[in-house]
Amino acid sequence: MDETPAPPPPPTGQVIVLEPLVARVLAPNPSPFTYTGTQTHLVGTADLAVIDPGPADAAHHQALLRAIAGRPVTAIVVTHHHRDHSPGTRALQAATGAPIVGAAPVFLADDGPRADAAFDTDYSPDRVLIEGDTVAGEGWTLAAIATPGHTGNHLAFALPETGALFSGDHVMGWSTSIVSPPDGDMGDYMASLEKLLAREDRVYYPGHGEAVERPQRLVRGLLGHRRQREGQILRLLADVPRGIAAMVEKMYVGLDPRLLPAAERSVLAHLIDLERRGRVRRDGAVWVAA
Fold first, then answer.
1. Of 185, 180, 195, 287, nearest to 233 (Cα)?
2. Are 101 and 185 in the same domain?
3. Second label for 62, Cα 20 to 30 Å away, from 95, 172, 220, 255?
4. pLDDT in tens, 107-164
5. Superkingdom, according to UniProt (predicted)?
6. Do the beta carbons of residue 267 and residue 247 sit within 8 Å?
């Protein structure tokens, strides 16, 4: 995928205060798909929301309990059901008694090898949130914004008191998001980016990577990037029918080989979207211009 060079890894397990109402704790799960690791965000002061408790990792769980420091947890909030975001909900709920709220559980059969993080099949929220639903505590409110695309159930959460948005994996601070069918949908992903572009959020706090200080600029860039990829596909197919691997070879020159399966999934997502719009069609193992 397209990514920025990795800076020195930030410290895992430490509380980093981002603004008076927001802190984060980095999980020790770096990888080609998670960058320096999953970032769990804590919202509030007297009482808290914990957004995306991360993987089922004992060290990260203990770090979160230290960060919570005995304060009441109003809600454990989940943006989506991938294994680097939601498994930590179970231990945190057992420790705090807080309800698990947010994204719906999604269980889908796949049509090919997965390249993104595997589903957390045990994820079971106490309350599923939809567009406009809120959870609140003393001095803070989190409003759900439906942002499907990376996954079918993905939610972002706005913090209107400060103008911040917790963007999960829909918009990240280091790379474009993987869109892997059938759960990932490129048409939905683009529509969700357009939805965020129409907002006036001050800053994004993503699940991976640093805070995004000029979010509208980044979202415009992500939309442009995806349209550029779509144009590449259409130009390649205008020359000759091609399979996905052959397209990826032309489109992602110099990509880390570990990320090639993810690139193939994103190209497939583009092709499915183009097929729906009547721009391409399948012919056996290859795709052709319509």
1. 287
2. yes
3. 172
4. 655 444 444 447 888 999 999 999 999 999 999 999 999 999 999 999 999 999 999 9
5. Bacteria
6. yes
